[in-house]
Amino acid sequence: MEAGCVTIGCPPSRGEGWISFRFDFHSFAELSDESGDATESPVFLFNGNWWTVDICPGGDSDDEGDDNDDKRFVSIYMCHERGEGLHNNNTTITFEIKILNKNGAHMTKTKLGHVIGSEGSSMGWSKFIKRSRILNKSNNFLDNGTLAVVISIKETPKPSTPFVPRNPCQNLIKETFLDEETSDVCFEVANGNEVMEENNGAKRAKCSTSFHAHRFILRTCAPMLAYLCGLDCGKMTTVSIIDVKP
Hints:
Blueprint: E1 18-25, E2 39-40, E3 44-46, E4 49-56, E5 73-83, E6 91-100, E7 106-114, E8 122-130, H1 131-135, E9 142-143, E10 146-157, H2 169-175, E11 185-189, E12 195-197, E13 203-205, E14 209-213, H3 215-221, H4 223-229, E15 237-241
Parallel strand pairs: 11-15
Antiparallel strand pairs: 1-10, 2-4, 3-4, 4-5, 5-8, 6-7, 6-10, 9-10, 11-14, 12-13
């Protein structure tokens, strides 16, 4: 007599964007346990790509040639059979594989953020669970010899890199360097032997080299020079510097 399953109400959501598939591998203990021998599920479709779940009851590699089930692992993979992949979609997938026991408990492993590769590529675990744990009747993983494997997949958009425009402020300030038109300070630098005295008693270079500057930059970068210029903002100030060579 076969038992039926009746669903009442809405089942709990696995989470937004997740899609799950269940595969029953019958007569698990009788499947080939030779290393590398895989049993393949029927294909299923997700995001325009066809997949299978491949299970290697005896593992996918030789563990020092040991035939002891207690030291061997079952390998489980999600394999990309055909499709365009997601290389051009700026998208990855997150997937988890779980094996169920008769009581509804499960063993789960999850991989995050994998880009779908080319046809024939696979993602999963070479050592998902020890073979002896599945065959041990007390763990109830086999229901009348059947191993239930559930795979859940979710498409995960990659976070986009925010566009941060370049700040032109630094370049604009550099462009004002020695700019006579926008300056409000002029340093006249001359040798001390080339100085004449004006009517008001101030000394002025006879032959000098002029350097134009800006008070607001000097206050931050050269406060001593800013002090020589005074505090009368908005008016052009000429400062003579002698006894130095330009």
